[in-house]
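$ fold --in a.seq
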Amino acid sequence: MTYWRELPSLVVAREGDSVTKSPLAGRFQEAIDEAAMRLGETGSDAYLEGWTRGEWTPAEGSGAEVCDRVVSELEAQWSEDRVTAYLDALGPAQDAGAAS
């Protein structure tokens, strides 16, 4: 999986030489962008540093089946309320133009 900080963004499954990628719903990218604004990490370097990949985990099924299953699980685990609480914990958006 690919994350921006703790927020999931993309599920990748590998089956032999074949790779299947499934992005999560658009609300996750919106939350990632909102989190970056709240943290003042809107510059390309700061934003890019937030991206990480999780460890590969063996799973049963085809690449598409695994992606579908994991995407469904993540979307259920990260309800609208959980995403909102995560964003609220980050505080208000930082003014990228403010002097430090």
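$ fold --in b.seq
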Amino acid sequence: MYHLTILTHFAAAHNLLNYQGDCENLHGHNWKIEVTVNTEELNDAGLGIDFKILKKHTKEVMNYLDHKYLNDLEAFKGISPSSEHIAKFIYDRLLESLSPYAVHLEKITVWESDNAYATYTQS
């Protein structure tokens, strides 16, 4: 099994709903995102998927999030835009856009700081 990972980032503001503490107030993060796919097979060039393709699809999702107030986005209406929900949102968007390729979207990891992250993977 081959595992391929790219790193990217976005900056945005949010506030957590139903949270008793500082994070209930408006604040921002420079989120780091890890996108990991896996595959059993390589193409004729010896690639599971061209990193350019993976980056292109990921960038489309990052453009939706970058420099936004996440609470205002349709994707987070009625839910708290936590790292957990952001990870699932990115996963769902990439799952759809990567479906034509011979890879399985393994996991999305969303780092909200240097020492705190959330990972979403389908069971």
